[in-house]
Amino acid sequence: MTRIIEKVEKEETRRKLFGLLIFSFILMIALYVYFMSVTVIKAIERKNNIMLIQNLNSDNQLLEESYFTILNKFNKDYAYSLGFIDQKNTEFVFKSRPVAKR
């Protein structure tokens, strides 16, 4: 322990320790500024992304509304106007025995 105190008391060692202290202080300030700016940028990006999502949702609602409007146009009367007719005898095909067995 006394050896460390003797080394610290030397002028050259004091200068090195003081330089290291100043360097670490400047480094911590630089890192603080960097991380704060990154945090602010991320917060702004998040706000912009939320606004973009809201805009996309409203566009999606408008598209769905137009889709359902067009879909309602296709009904039985529209099929009759195109020349389709009702099928009188409706028959379905089925197999009497199952396709897959356990």
What does this structure look like?
The chain is mainly α and 102 residues long. The chain has one domain. Helices cover 75% and strands 0% of the residues. The protein has 3 helices and no strands. The longest helix is centred in the middle third of the chain and has 63 residues. It is elongated, with a radius of gyration of 39 Å.
Tell me the major beta sheet.
Answer: none
Q: Structural class of the secondary structure composition? A: mainly alpha
Query: What is the CA-CA span between the terminal residues?
Result: 84 Å
What share of residues are in beta strands?
A: under 5%
Shape: elongated
Average pLDDT level? 88
- Percent range for helical residues? over 70%
| Rg for CA atoms | 39 Å
Can you write the helix and strand succession as a string?
Answer: HHH
Number of β-strand runs: 0
Secondary structure layout plus pairing:
Elements: H1 2-9, H2 11-73, H3 76-81
Characteristic key phrases:
102 residues, elongated, 75% helix, mainly alpha
Q: Quick recap of the structure?
A:
This protein is an all-alpha fold. The chain has helices at 2-9, 11-73, 76-81.
